[in-house]
Amino acid sequence: MAANSVSVSSSLWAQRPLSRTARVSRAVRVAAPRAAIVEASPPGLPPARDNGRVTLSVAVAERAEDIQAESKAMARAVNATVYSPELLALRYGSRPIKVATRALEILIALGSFGVKLLIDQSNGKIDQNKRKRGGELRRIFTRLGPTFVKIGQGLSTRPDICPPEYLEELTELQDALPTFPDTEAFACIERELGLSLDSIFSSISPSPIAAASLGQVYKAQLRYSGQVVAVKVQRPGIEESIGLDFYLIRGLGFFINKYVDIITSDVVALIDEFAGRVFQELNYVQEGKNARRFKKLYADKQDVLVPDIFWNYTSGKVLTMEWVDGVKLNEQEAIEKQGLKVLDLVNTGIQCSLRQLLEYGYFHADPHPGNLLATPEGRLAFLDFGMMSETPEVARSAIIGHVVHLVNRDYEAMARDYYALDFLSPDVDVSPIVPALRDFFDDALNATVSELNFKTLVDGLGAVLYQYPFNVPAYYALILRSLTVLEGLALYADPDFKVLAASYPYFAKRLLTDPNPYLRDALIELLFKDGRFRWNRLENLLEQGRKDRDFSAKDALQPVLKLLLGPDGEELRVLVIKEAIRVTEAVVLGSVSDASKSIPDFMRTLLFNGNANGPLVMNDNELKGMIELRDQVFRIWGLLRTSESFDPALLQPILQVLQEPEARSLGGRVAGGITQRLAARLLQQVLRLPSSAPSSTS
Fold first, then answer.
1. Which 8-state DSSP code applies to residue 29?
2. Cα(257)–Cα(259) distance, integer angstroms
3. Is the predicted pLDDT of residue 688 greater than 60, yes or no?
């Protein structure tokens, strides 16, 4: 990638305005290299031969070299600090003056805020002033430094701790810390890598092109290859500063747990979890490994870009990463000047976020606009992999089931889902929560689910969580924040954009094709109600699922087929037999009705004993219902048949299943039922009995 000047908006980790010097596009040329050992890629290898052997050997050699370089980087980071409450207690327990000084600074800042809250409460203005106080808290966190900036950003994802007004203010929290001297940054690079600066880079920017709470970023060009890279350097003394703050905050957490009843979550546990994540961010080798894992899982799509890591020039405090030219996702005008559409990029982000949450369970936990870039080629680039999280496997399926229960307005099941999602401990009674869910969602669901505004749902659900003893897991809070951020970006481009509408094809595809028992049951729950099959739901699922690029017609409904013929499928078999008879009757009688309509009216009257409507004795509503059912079934088959991935092999599993004893029994029961039904119909036509709706269609 050629070196070229870029704006702050196209830089990595661009989270706040920089000085004029930092925006200078020229690079400083460093002196000729001094004597030093420079780790570099091996010289050019011979071209690949037709038999592919050389290509394979090149790949193996490159992989071996990469593993070796990564091992060296890990060795350089072997002494990276990890979070340990016990070690912090040992370190700062013997330094009372330092602890007291910092504690006083924090106490004055947060104490004055607490006094204002008490005054608001005594004046009855606690609700009226929530927005104002949220803004003040955001500014206090910024003044207190990196630890509190991170805490504020973390709190912005916790609807169980903060009311919505605070969440919105803290979501806007940005790093606004001064840069540290470039001489210290360059000395850190040389010290960490054991190489002179000019032996590594042929050029490096004179000042940082981006800054964050934990470090700052330079643009450079590698000497050995000419590759343009981003070099992130950790802020000096940051471990000491953050360690002291978390030592004090953890002590405050014990006090809150004991005396503050309004907060139902275990504050100390939340602090420990969050502190562990922040300390992981201080190890840049771990961030590099996170980026590699994320790239392997999600950069298989052409529209997703994840920069690569240069292990030879990475350590615990220095991260060298492939440079990405691009524009921050919230800069709509700049994106459109490149001929790109913000909504296309947001849709890419939504689909990638859903895969992160619900497929592999490994996701980017800090997806603010500064970490999402639109490249000139129209790809969405993810940056900054210091803070990652994982979704438990059980929760991945439970979230999809939760969406099904939302569609069905089954609030009792929704409340029970919170056990599987780990929102509630098993001993909590969910019955009082059900009315709160019903009150909110009955209002929200006046629109269809796909038309709902995601932020409205999150805010409403957050209000419920805030009132009841919920403990929202970090993974769930972070992914809600991710989708809310993406929807917010899209709303700038299109006020009518709905993130749930963009997400629904993915959910439909998973329900139709995933063999997971939980999802299989959720699909059956969605398709069957009161002993009747809901063909409109199946048609809608297929229409939505086909919009997902990974939808496979061959896999659609296979989970249900397997359950149908399994040992526990008798209840479902009874429903399917009944529905198969009803559909067959609709197809046969609908076709007879259509055929009779091709006969002239006067002949139809003569042929059918004066019945101008044809050979069928049934009321108009019944006939109309049968034809609608037949047409709907034909449309569903058309959706499957016209799918890009359709293959006649779709029928093969069904044909194979028909050879099995259970299937033959099922087929016999269906055939017998159809025979009886049609015989009854025929007798009805012969005897011209009064029309009445068949019992199977009721």
1. E
2. 6
3. no
HEC string of 231-278 equals: EEEECCCHHHHHHHHHHHHHHHHHHHHHHCCCCCCCHHHHHHHHHHHH
Of 349, 402, 392, 389, which Cα lies nearest the Cα of 372? 349
Q: Are 307 and 324 in contact (CB under 8 A)?
A: yes
* Strand partners for 372: 382
State the pairing for strand pair 318-322/327-328: unpaired
DSSP annotation of 204:
E
SS3 of 468-480: CCCCCCHHHHHHH
Closest CA to 535 of 586, 589, 593: 586
Cα–Cα dist 21/329, whole Å: 24
Handedness of CA 505, 510, 511, 513 (dihedral sign): positive
Contact at 8 Å (CB) between 159 and 148?
no
Classify residue 309 by its DSSP letter.
B
The whole-angstrom distance between residue 25's C-alpha and the CA centroid of its chain comes to: 36
Average pLDDT, the chain: 77
**Residue 265 φ/ψ, nearest 5 degrees:** -75, 160
Please state, in angstroms and as integers, the Cα–Cα distance from residue 421 to each residue in 357, 415, 458, 500, following that order: 13, 10, 16, 20
Beta strands 304-305; 380-382: pairing state: parallel
What would the pLDDT profile of 287-301 be if each residue is shown by its tens digit? 999 999 999 999 887
SS3 333: helix
pLDDT digit string, tens, across residues 40-90: 344 344 444 555 566 667 778 778 888 999 999 999 988 888 899 999 999
Answer for the pair 85, 250: CB distance below 8 angstroms, yes or no: yes
What is the Cα–Cα distance from 422 to 399, expressed in whole angstroms? 11
Largest Cα separation within the chain, whole Å, is 109
C-alpha to C-alpha distance for 400 and 518, rounded to whole angstroms = 9
Helix pair 411-420, 433-444: axis angle to 10 deg: 120
Q: pTM of the entire structure?
A: 0.71
Work out the pLDDT band at 1, boundaries 50, 70, 90: very low
Residue 305, SS3 per DSSP: strand
Alpha-carbon Rg for the chain in angstroms: 32
Strands 201-204 vs 215-222: parallel, antiparallel or unpaired: antiparallel
pLDDT in tens, 257-282: 888 776 666 788 888 988 888 898 99
Residue whose token pair is 């139902």: 264
What's the rounded Cα separation, in Å, for the pair 486 and 241?
33
Mean pLDDT on 569-574: 67
DSSP collapsed to 3 states, 677-696: HHHHHHHHHHHCCCCCCCHH
Q: How many CA atoms lie within 13 A of 388 on its CB side?
A: 24
The residues pairing with 673 across neighbouring beta strands, listed in sequence order, are none
Distance, in Å, from the CA atom of 275 to the CA atom of 278, rounded to the nearest integer, reads: 5
Q: Give the pair of three-digit tokens for residue 235.
A: 């802020």
> Catalytic positions, please?
366
Residue 419: which H helix or E strand, with range? Answer: helix 411-420
Using one digit for the tens of pLDDT, what is the confidence trace for 481-540? 777 777 777 777 777 777 777 887 888 888 888 878 778 788 888 777 777 777 777 777
- Are the CB atoms for 365 and 158 separated by under 8 Å? no
Can you spell out the DSSP letters for 216-227?
A: EEEEEEETTT--
**Type of residue at 597:** K
pLDDT at residue number 527 = 79
473 confidence band (pLDDT: 50, 70, 90): confident
